[in-house]
Amino acid sequence: MLSDKPMSKHKAIPRLIRAATAGAIGLAAAGALVAFAGPAHAADLPGTAGAAPPTVFVQTDNPAGNQVIAFAQQPDGHLSQEQVVSTGGLGGIEAATPAGFGGLASQGSLTYDPEHHLLFAVNAGSDTISVLSAGGRHVRLDQVLSSRGEFPNSIAVHGNLVYVANAGGAGSVSGFWIFGQHVVPLPGSMRSLGLDSTNPPNFHDGPGQVTFSPSGSELLVTTKLSTNSIDVFRVGASGYLSTAPTVTPDGSNGPFSLTFTPSGQLAVAEVAISALHTYAFGPGGTLTSLSASVPDGQVAQCWVIGADGFYYAANTGSANLSEYTVAANGTPSLVTPVAATTTGDGPEDLATSANGKYLYDEVGAAGAVDEFRINSDGSLTPIGSVPGLGAGIEGIAVG
């Protein structure tokens, strides 16, 4: 195995690229590399005049055919639909998913890579991931590749390195390299998560998120109620992970998703107790709790995102959002009075605009995206909603 010495930008070395490319060609011959898509139809690539506005991408996760919907963000924060593109795969629904809610139960199922202008989508129903070119309002399907596991539900990107979490069965993470504008599998990169689940997994039992640490030297996976832990793999210079992760138990709290503070601390949404919990990194991927969990008094805190010093959590079971701050020492505080902003039914994945002025919340049961203005004090003002996207949507990203 190549060296495990951390390397923050994961620049591909020639030997690895040759091996990965050769591996990809071999997998293609065996059918594991599912497809390289041709040019999109003209209807998928509308012409634009002048500079394109920021884009918000939404994934439908439709089991009959997954799609990505591109929206132009207007200056006032409202979204206007521009384009609908097939991912070339099928959406998926985890077992025991409440009717109308998003079926992936994960954060990061749709991920934008600004360095390469690529959009990564999971096709949980067909065990594949899609790679789409996303330059402004122009979105084009380029590749559909095997996720090399069952029921992929989250994707992380850092530099030229991509890892996908597979939620089915024992669960796993598998790596890929971005080579130019193409993505190739990283041979021998799969690591088991040691879960005890089915395929598709139960709604509460698959991994909740895979993500890189800010430096890219660690890969983190939350396991929700399956093992109630946060797993941290070391990332080597060649892109390979440590053989096994460092595991930090989180009681019976159900760590679902996480984000990072400006100083690199973890802010973790805990679904079982609807709370925010913070951790600091230690040697070898160990995590140290910085504070007791801080409940928001709501039901099923699942998704969390940071924006300009504030942290917003989606409470799927109580159809609202909560707001936190996190002190420099890592202590979270629920904003007082409790800021439970009402949403449509089934709030889930969240995204903020590039300028930090607007928050977008997918509401899976309603099949809509709720739009909010972020005020200077961190409070949210509803400004509208985009309906008619289909119940069960899940996955949102900003380009």
Q: What does it look like?
A:
The chain has 399 residues and is mainly β. It has one domain: Methylamine Dehydrogenase, Chain H. Helix content is 5%, strand content 43%. The protein has a five-stranded antiparallel sheet, with no helix packed on it. Strands 9, 10, 11, 12 and 13 form a five-stranded antiparallel sheet that branches. The longest helix has 17 residues, at 14-30. The chain is globular, with a radius of gyration of 19 Å. It starts with 13 loop residues before the first helix and ends with a strand.
Name a few traits of the molecule.
single chain; 399 residues; mainly beta; Methylamine Dehydrogenase, Chain H; five-stranded antiparallel beta sheet; 2 helices; globular; disordered N terminus
Q: Using the coordinates shown, work out and report the CATH topology.
A: Methylamine Dehydrogenase, Chain H
Give the uncertain stretches in residue-range form: 1-14, 19-50
Individual helix count: 2
Overall outline: globular
Name of the CATH superfamily: YVTN repeat-like/Quinoprotein amine dehydrogenase
Strand order of the largest sheet: 1-8-7-6-5
**Backbone structural class:** mainly beta
The radius of gyration over CA amounts to 19 Å
Total number of strands: 32
Task: Summarize the entry for a quick read.
By secondary structure, this protein is mostly beta strands. 5% of the residues lie in helices and 43% in strands. The strands form seven sheets. A five-stranded antiparallel beta sheet has the order 1-8-7-6-5, with no helix packed on it. Strands 9, 10, 11, 12 and 13 form a five-stranded antiparallel beta sheet that branches.
